[in-house]
Amino acid sequence: MFEDAPIDSLLGQVRGYDFESLPVVETGFCRVEAIVALDRVMRAAQAEQVAQVAALYDERVHLMGLGQGDPGLSVIGELGMARNIGPTAAGTQLGLALGLKRLPKVFELFKTGVISEATARVVVNETCSLSVDDFPIADAALADKIPGLTTVRARQAAARIVIGIDAEAARVRAQKARADAHVSMHPDADGMATLRVHGPAEQIVATFNALDTWARGLRATGDPRSRGKIMSQTLVERVLGISSADAADVEVQVVMDADTVFNHGDTPADLVGYGPIAPDVAEEIIAKARHRWARRFLTDPVDGTLLARDARRRRYGGPINAYVRARDRRCRQPGCDCTIRDTDHIIDFQLGGETTADNGQGLCKRSHSIKHQPGWTVTSKGKATIWRTPTGHEYRSDPPPVLPRDDNPDHLRQ
Fold this sequence. Notes:
- By secondary structure, this protein is α+β, with helices and mostly antiparallel strands.
- The chain has 3 domains: about 170 residues, no CATH class; about 60 residues, no CATH class; about 150 residues, no CATH class.
- The chain has 15 helices and 12 strands.
- The strands form 4 sheets. Strands 5-4-3-6-7 form a 5-stranded mixed beta sheet. Strands 10-11-12 form a 3-stranded antiparallel beta sheet, with no helix packed on it.
- Helix 2 packs across helix 4 and helix 3 packs across helix 15.
- The radius of gyration is 27 Å and the shape is globular.
- The protein starts with 6 loop residues before the first helix and ends in a 17-residue tail after the last strand.
């Protein structure tokens, strides 16, 4: 019912369609038709956004010229702050934009809503090792093959096409992928987290099978823990070289306001990396900390940002460095939530910037590099930093409240 409607008018047609006037037996059919039609709208919008990214990159290359910085990194920073996404996600979109420029027929399928962004991305990733002369061949074969396929099947089809065109290119790509082994950690709800290991398939499979076999063996001998819990705890024990996963040393950072610290107030404390906990529990953690280290963070009663950091435990090069990392918690580039890797001078040291907490900010490696690209400036304004991009856009970054407040703090300013 919507399949022949132009993409530019589809959204209006769906919004204006009177679904409620239809008989109940027909409403479901029409809503599914609308959902499928809206897929075309979203895909076309995503494709147009990718086209704009590619054009922005071309313009940035022209403006920066040779040897005047990295235009790709500059565009990644621009995209990240404009879209409020991290540098990794922005880099992924730039990679997709540049890859689709080499596959115009596949790009046309994306623009017309025939394939999804996920499918376009896997096709670009599978073909990235081809030579310039081979891209037109792959593009024609892919455009004929991938319509109607799921993302997984499209990736498999693209891999077969690449191997058929240039087996050596496929081998080089596989070698590059194997060199990109890494480990990442992702916080989950309820005090849990996920450890993700990306590496050669045979090594990951062997590791999983070893943990699985060990867990099944313990279960067979009467261990009451679930198979998954045994596997998880065994991994922790073997990596840390300890006999029990519960014996792992940990530093507990407890955030509280002044009323809780000095007057035994009832404001919930915040266990960094977990969430709100009762004040009495926070004090109990500090009092009982033995093989676990506890450190208190005192917060500003007005905006919840960090005022002071208990110096009981120090793991970094100095108190200023540790304070900045504790205050900022994540990379301070607007839109970036990456782990802090560098403590940066907002005003460069070479330009007279002081090595103080007020002139410091925590940044990830990529954001630190973006800051020093041509056309970028970062200045401070009170507790905030202002990032100005080469296009003249400005983005504000405030240190996050380490103890969020829900009430109106205006009375605290009087």
